[in-house]
Amino acid sequence: LGGGLAFYEGRSVVRSILVSRHGLATEGTIVRVGPTSTSINRVPQWQIHYRYRDHIGHTQEGKSHLMSPEEGSVWKEGDRGTVRFDRERPEISVWVGTA
After folding, report:
1. Which of 64, 60, 58 is nearest to 91 (CA)?
2. Which residues on adjacent β-strands are paired with residue 95?
3. Edge-to-edge, what's the strand order for the sheet holding 93-97?
4. CA–CA separation, 15 vs 94, rounded Å?
5. Which distant-in-sequence residues (6+ apart) come within 8 Å of 91 by Cβ?
6. Per-residue buried b or exposed e for 45-69, using 16+ beta carbons within 10 Å of the residue's own CB
7. Quick one: how far is CA 73 from the chain centroid?
8. ∠ at Cα 63 (66, 29), nearest 5°?
9. What is the DSSP string of 1-52?
10. Which residue of 1, 10, 64, 98 sits 20 to 30 Å from the alpha carbon of 52, by its own alpha carbon?
11. pLDDT confidence of residue 28
12. What tens digit of pLDDT does each residue of 32-84 get?
C-alpha cells in the first residue's frame, strides 16, 4: 500500500514540475484562499483555489500546492496570477502566481 501511494504522489510531483516548465501559460483568478486542514510543525498550511480558461476557451479550476500562511495571505479572492496547464489535459494545472 505504501509503495502504491509513494508512486502516485511521485507521479503527481513529476507532472506538476513538467507542467510548470512546459505548460501553456494563462491568467487565473483566485476564487478562494485560506488555511487547509493540513499542518506542518503545527502551522496550518494555506492553499489557493483558482479558475482559468484553457486554450479552447473552457473554464477549468485548480488548486495550488500547500504554502505557508505568510505566502498564502498575500493573495486575496479576485486577485489574478499566472497559471500553467497541460495542453493535452487542461484540467492539470499549476499556480505560478506572478510571472
Report:
1. 60
2. 83
3. 59-63, 43-53, 24-40, 80-85, 93-97
4. 10
5. 60, 62, 85
6. bbbbbbebbbeeeeebebebeebee
7. 15
8. 120
9. -HHHHHHHHHHHHHHHHHHHHHSEEEEEEEEEEEEEEEEETTEEEEEEEEEE
10. 10
11. 97
12. 999 999 999 999 999 999 999 999 999 999 999 999 999 999 999 999 999 99
Pairing relation of β-strands 24-40 and 80-85? antiparallel
The three three-digit cell numbers of residue 81, written as one number = 496570477
**Cβ atoms of 82 and 23 closer than 8 Å:** no
Grid coordinates representing 22?
512546459
Return the DSSP state at 92.
-
